[in-house]
Structure formats: C-alpha cells, structure tokens
Inverse folding.
C-alpha cells in the first residue's frame, strides 16, 4: 500500500514526545524483552541493595566511640569517624598531620585552578605544578627545613602512602616505558635485544616476586652505607614492573602509525629524536591513551601489594585498624571504606582520561 | 617550455644502482644524471620500480650496489650525510603524509625551525608566503584533516619547499586525487618548474609531462628502458615496450 508523504512545511524539526514517562516507555519498556530485562534487573537490584542499605544506613550507628555501636546489628561508622585520620596517613605523628592536610589542600587548589580554562595556559600555573612535588615532599618529610620536624618515611602510611607510591611509580614508569618501546623498535640490535629481553622477562614474573626482589636484592647492588627505605624499594619494584607493561601498550601505538608518517619526517630531514618527539610519540600516545590509563589504574590498585614488604598502605591500615583492641572486628566497615577510596581514585583517573581523549582526538 | 640544461652542473648522479627486496630485483643497473634545473618525468607500469628509484635518492630506500651522488655527496650509510642530503631534497608523496596532529602552519614550520634553526617568526612568515604561492593562505590554521585532498597535497608541497631544497622529488603526487583537484596541484608544480626547480616527477599525467619535462624516462621491471626528450618520447619511441605503454595510457 502506498501512502503519499506530504512535504515538510515547518522550519524546525518535528517534535517527538518528550518527558520522563515517554523516555521510560521508549527506553526501558519497549520492545517486550527490554521490559523483561528492566523488571529482572530491578528485582536483582532490590534484593542486593535492600540488605546493604539496612546494614549501612538504617541500622548503622554514628559517633566516635565504640559504645554507641554496642548491641547494634548495623554498620558501625563510629569506627571510621574515629579512625579516619589513620586511614589517611597511617602512623604519621598526629600532631603533624596538618602538614599532610596542607599538602593535599595545595594539590586541590592546583587542580581547581587547572579546571579553569583561562588559567590553564598560564606559565605560573605550570611552574606551580612542576614545583609542587618538591614542596609537598619537603612539607611531608620535613627535617630542619622551615623548622619542620623530620618525619621518617617509616611513619608514612595509609591513603597518603598509596597515592605517593602510585604517583611516583607512574611518573618514573612512563618515560622508562617510552624508552623501552622505542628501544624495541630500534634499528640497533643491542638496544632492541635488551629492550625485548627486559620486557619479556618482567612481564613473565608476578609483581609480588618483583617487590620481594627489590626489597631483598636491591641493596646488594649498592654499597652497604647507602640506605634504601622500604618505600624507595617499593617504588623501584613497581616502576620496573609497570614500565614493561606500559612499553607494550606504547609499542602498539607506534605500530598504529602509518609508515608514511615516519617517511615524511625522514624526508624532511628531521633527526631521530625530533622525529620521535614531534611526530611519532604525540600521535602514538594519543592512540594508546585508553590502554595507558588502564595501566595507571592497574598501578594504583596493585600498590596494595606493598603490604607484603611491610609497608602500611591504605589496605594495610584497614588490617591494622581492625586489630586495634578498641575496634576489634570492624572488618566490613574497614574494607568498604578502603574500597570506596580505591574506587574514587580509579574512577577519577578514568574520567580524566575520557576528557583527554575527547580533547586530543586525531 | 624547453630550455637548455646541457651545461648545467649535475645534481643527481646514479651509477649502476641496484636494489633488491629480499630476492626481488627492484632496481637493475640504473644509470641517471639529473642536471640543475632539469625536469625529469619518470613513467612506467605499476611495480616497475619508479617509487623505489626516487626513494633511493633520499634514502627512504637503501640501495645495495652502485653509487648515488647528490650534490657531490655520495650516499653512504653515514647518518650525517643522509641527514644533510635529506635537507636538500624535498619529497612529495602520493598520500600527502601531512602530520595530522599539527596545524598546516606547524606542518610547514616544524622542520625549518628545528633542523635549520630559523627563528619561529621568520619561519612562519616564509610558511605564509609559501601558502600564498600554492593558493591556500586562508587554511594556515586548520588541521590537515579539514582540507580537501588537493589542498593537502599543496600543503605538502609547501612543507617540502619550506626547507629551501635544491631538488624536489614527486612520487605520483596526483594519483590519490579526484579529477577536479589534479589541476590545482599540477599548476603549482608547473609554477615550480618555471622558476627553475630541479625536479624528478613520477607521474602518468602525460599532458603535464609533454609540457614541462626536459627528459622522459620509461621504466619497466626495474630497468630504465628508454630515456629521451619528450618530443622524441611521444612521437617516436624507440622501444616496443614504450610504445605499448604509451598506447595503453594515452588511449585511456
Ligand atoms: N618494501 C617492499 N618490500 C618488498 N617489495 C617491495 C617493497 N616495496 C616495493 N616492492 C616491490 O618492488 C617493486 C617495485 O615497486 P615500486 O617501486 O613501488 O613500483 P612503482 O612505484 O613503479 O609502482 C614492486 O614489485 C613491489 O612489489
Ligand atoms: Mg609507486
């Protein structure tokens, strides 16, 4: 059957039915199998969430002392309220905690400033970012500078330590991985073999064993009078481990570029490092941004293995806090709280990468 | 556009150049001289080694036997020499090969600024002048992906010219273009030829060749089959293989 379609006369597109109800009807309940899915999912959510809600909110108790939680069947958030500074900084001396808070505040200010488009291009802001690690390090570690008492790294812990390990490992692993990826593509057989050997060797070994080795073997290579803090050993281990993984991702990006890009750069007479820095890497890194961020998220979560060499990171603080006689056995609360923090950090990273991806589309 | 180049200095000299891809003999005893200001057009069937030949001149491909001398410098594995030669030899590719992450202006200024140490301001002025010369001044701040094929190829020519090369190599510069864009690129090349640039052009644009070339080279199976002036080449080709090829290409 043929119908005649009238020419469209309006100067705006036709309006379809809108509104929440219509949206739900179109997206959640039609066709019939979507309706079934919606109902099943809803039921599952209800079954899973209600007890959690009852435990975590309805029956929960708040406060700062253990006695409010006596004879209570719900979550004891008093535990978190009392212990959260320990979750944040571990055994960092309590009268010096303001230094860590100040450092965190500084970073927060920098991040907020960077969110403003107008400020983003300012040289001053870039300089602040570059200087921030030094300032933070001095602030947190102290030791005769600005009359700040020395807080040895053995007292660093909690979220602060997790963030420190992740960031420092990322910062060192990234350039190392770029060099490894370039080395693997090099024309020079020695450099290529060394890169391949390194990558394949490290990728075939679990991080835990590398952490052990860094902790035990590393001091053997250096004169005995050189002190290696546990944190330094952990950073070395994590960096060496993730550089191998990152390198493989970056190699994927290098191979993703057309041969024409290399040839055009060669034909223009660009030398190796200029070609690599201006033409190859900027494009390759854009291609591999999503898997790279995936790797960074991996680093962040895997820092939780440093407990094995005796560091008290965010996860270990949870163990420690629940064995505090005052708060014995508050395991669920502790792990939920810790998981929440890991999730916030990983999710922020992943959001950040989406923003970068949109900005630097090729 | 005939002009006398017989007494001009030799810019490129190839003596018994041979090249293999594994066992495949891609260049078979190539002998060529290109003089200053000479416009040489190379044609031949697909796979005959035209690209390979001009790519050995700036060492995008390495030859395994024979001698290539560019501006008196012999091409050897010495990285420094290769580098020096590449700065003097511009190349334009079939697929343009612009840098997609850089603006048109940055595509053009990158190499002059970093390899010739020309101040950024000056390099930009030169780049804008070149863009005007190839007729796309208004596209300076766009990205390559926003331009048509013909415009991209003209940017690629401007980018090569920005290094002030003494020799320009073109590898089928119009083969990837829609018909209506071919002319705008050929016009730019014509203008270059008119201004005395030494050019080696791989192309099947025979009208252009007849008009611009000083020397026609016909290649087949890695060999130079015939080399002559365009007049002779088109009206009285000596080799049977050349005749076949010309028949085929001129009848299309
Ligand atoms: N990188 C390469 N590896 C192997 N064979 C190649 C390579 N490049 C070109 N060839 C071969 O060499 C011959 C000449 O190629 P080419 O110079 O590109 O021809 P033309 O440009 O005349 O079409 C072809 O048979 C081609 O298949
Ligand atoms: Mg070719």
């Amino acid at each position: 059957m043929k119908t005649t379609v009238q020419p469209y006369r309006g100067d705006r597109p036709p309006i379809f039915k809108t509104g929440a109800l219509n949206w739900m009807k179109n997206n959640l309940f039609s066709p019939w199998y979507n309706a079934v899915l919606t109902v099943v999912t809803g039921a599952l959510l209800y079954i899973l969430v209600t007890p959690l809600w009852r435990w975590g909110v309805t029956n929960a108790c708040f406060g700062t002392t253990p006695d409010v939680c006596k004879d209570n069947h719900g979550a004891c958030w008093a535990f978190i309220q009392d212990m959260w500074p320990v979750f944040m900084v571990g055994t960092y001396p309590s009268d010096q905690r303001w230094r860590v808070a100040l450092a965190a505040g500084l970073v927060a200010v920098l991040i907020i400033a960077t969110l403003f488009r107008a400020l983003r291009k300012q040289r001053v802001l870039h300089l602040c970012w570059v200087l921030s690690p030094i300032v933070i390090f001095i602030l947190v570690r102290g030791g005769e500078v600005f009359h700040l008492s020395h807080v040895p790294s053995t007292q660093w812990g909690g979220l602060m330590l997790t963030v420190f390990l992740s960031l420092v490992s990322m910062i060192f692993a990234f350039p190392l991985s770029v060099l490894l990826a370039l080395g693997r593509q090099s024309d020079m057989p020695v450099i290529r073999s060394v890169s391949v050997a390194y990558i394949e060797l490290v990728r075939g070994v679990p991080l835990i064993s590398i952490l052990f080795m860094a902790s035990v073997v590393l001091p053997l290579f250096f004169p005995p009078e050189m002190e290696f803090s546990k944190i330094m050993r952990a950073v070395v281990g994590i960096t060496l481990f993730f550089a191998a993984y990152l390198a493989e991702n970056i190699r994927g990006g290098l191979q993703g570029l057309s041969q024409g890009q290399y040839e055009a750069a060669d034909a223009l007479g660009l030398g190796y490092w200029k070609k690599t820095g201006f033409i190859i890497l900027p494009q390759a890194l854009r291609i591999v941004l999503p898997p790279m961020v995936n790797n960074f998220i991996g680093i962040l979560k895997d820092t939780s293995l440093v407990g094995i060499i005796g560091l008290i990171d965010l996860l270990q603080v949870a163990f420690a806090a629940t064995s505090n006689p005052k708060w014995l056995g508050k395991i669920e609360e502790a792990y939920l709280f810790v998981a929440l923090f890991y999730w916030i950090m990983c999710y922020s990273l992943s959001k950040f990468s989406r923003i970068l991806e949109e900005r630097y589309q090729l | 556009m005939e002009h006398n180049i017989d007494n001009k200095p030799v810019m490129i000299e190839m003596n018994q150049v041979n090249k293999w891809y594994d066992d495949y003999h891609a260049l078979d005893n190539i002998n060529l001289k290109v003089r200053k200001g000479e416009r040489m057009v190379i044609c031949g069937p697909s796979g005959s080694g035209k690209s390979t030949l001009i790519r050995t001149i700036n060492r995008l491909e390495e030859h395994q036997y024979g001698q290539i001398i560019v501006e008196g410098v012999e091409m050897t594995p010495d990285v420094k020499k290769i580098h020096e030669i590449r700065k003097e030899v511009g190349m334009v590719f079939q697929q343009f090969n612009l840098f997609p992450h850089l603006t048109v202006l940055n595509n053009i200024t990158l190499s002059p600024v970093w390899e010739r140490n020309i101040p950024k301001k000056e390099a930009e002025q030169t780049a804008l002048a070149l863009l005007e010369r190839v007729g796309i001044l208004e596209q300076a701040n766009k990205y390559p992906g926003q331009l048509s094929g013909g415009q991209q190829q003209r940017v690629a020519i401007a980018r090569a010219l920005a290094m002030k090369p003494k020799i320009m190599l073109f590898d089928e510069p119009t083969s990837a273009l829609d018909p209506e864009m071919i002319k705008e690129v050929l016009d730019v090349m014509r203008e270059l030829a008119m201004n005395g640039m030494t050019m080696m052009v791989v192309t099947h644009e025979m009208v252009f060749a007849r008009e611009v070339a000083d020397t026609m080279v016909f290649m087949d199976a890695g060999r130079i089959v015939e080399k002559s002036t365009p007049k002779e080449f088109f009206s009285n080709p000596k080799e049977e293989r050349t005749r076949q090829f010309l028949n085929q290409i001129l009848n299309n």
